[in-house]
């Protein structure tokens, strides 16, 4: 099994390389199509990585990843499953790709919203709409007796 290489992106300018020794794979029977072979071949792959102790992440990346993936974690371990292919080899590749994509997205820093002001045109349109609505409601009122 080779190291998992995650391409460079926001939060990881040099990319990330997860050593193969830190990845844990488990194989089991997959459900679904496959005929008689589905009962005999262990084609489903569960790929796990302990994010709390991996040497692939810096401390700032680790903090960001643990916070972003918290709902998916068991302790500090991230597990992905792939069973969409009949071949164990293709499921292994799919699980690695999925794990890499999750980490790549989680490492990216959050995009902060920049506060903006309403444009002059939108302020004018809002004031005009309020004026029209006010006039409509004023016309519906019962005339005063004075």
TrEMBL record:
Its EC number is 3.1.1.29. Residues 125-146 have a biased composition (Basic and acidic residues). One of its GO terms (molecular function) is peptidyl-tRNA hydrolase activity. Residues 16-140 form the Prokaryotic-type class I peptide chain release factors domain. Residues 106-146 are annotated as: Disordered. Keywords: Hydrolase. Belongs to the prokaryotic/mitochondrial release factor family. PANTHER family: PEPTIDYL-TRNA HYDROLASE ARFB. This is Alternative ribosome rescue aminoacyl-tRNA hydrolase ArfB. It comes from Gulosibacter faecalis.
